[in-house]
Amino acid sequence: MSELTGNRIRSTAGKLGLPHLAETINEFTRRADEGKLGYLDFLDLVLSEELAVRDDRRFRQGLRLSKLPHHKTLEEYDFSFQPDLDPRKVKDLATLSFVEAKANAALLGPPGVGKTHIAVALAVAACRAGYSIYFTSLDDMVRNLKAAEETGRLTSKLGTYLRPGVLVVDEVGYQPLERAEANLVFQVISKRYEKGSIILTSNKTFSEWGQVFGDEVLATAILDRLLHHCDVISINGPSYRLKNRLKAIERETEVA
């Protein structure tokens, strides 16, 4: 390939929004020569790699915008520490069939058992699969919606929680809500109903949600929409955080 042709291809690739091709055309032609690729095989190689680079760029951008507290995966979750949790149930969720169906997933259990880890891992998997994701604690969501309502921007702010394909709502139940606050949560749940997936974590059983939302009728209305299409996983084992803290104390004791 002549230098003139290479420059022309780089220029055209840049105009078409194919930056990887523009940067690596010489590498592509070298591989084509070494592999004695035909025209169609060469075109398939170029387009496949460009798509892979574009998908990876979209994935990384999606993670940046997601507000996820970390990017842990299911491979990093220690299922052996939670023997009562069936790994198959979690891995079934990881197929993302519930996301495709615009259904929900709820992870229940006491603090420290890894609910947020699993919720984040599912969100990361969804992002890699091409879904938009957004993470928030329930308290942060309510605080932001209240502030928007007070300044006449509620409809706009609701969009933050309605647009993503997957909304992760963490720590439901850690702080009780006033009825007006619970009504804001109801608006998010009802408007997302059968339009987008929710992954939530809670340290409360569903029977305790009346106390969380300060109104049994409102809690029932929220649960009615949330649980209509929902996979529920309960994790009732020991705390990871406590385990790690105990190990740290043991090491400090040994050193002393």
From TrEMBL:
Signal peptide: none
Pfam families recorded: IstB_IS21
Domain of life, source organism: Bacteria
InterPro entries linked: AAA+_ATPase, DNAC/IstB-like, IstB, IstB_ATP-bd, P-loop_NTPase
Keyword Nucleotide-binding: yes
Domain AAA+ ATPase: 101-234
Keywords: ATP-binding, Nucleotide-binding
SMART domains assigned to the protein according to its UniProt record, in alphabetical order: AAA
The keyword ATP-binding is annotated on this UniProt entry: yes
Family assignment from sequence similarity: Belongs to the IS21/IS1162 putative ATP-binding protein family.
Name listed for the protein in its UniProt record: IS21-like element helper ATPase IstB
Source organism (scientific name): Streptomyces musisoli
Encoding gene, per UniProt annotation: istB
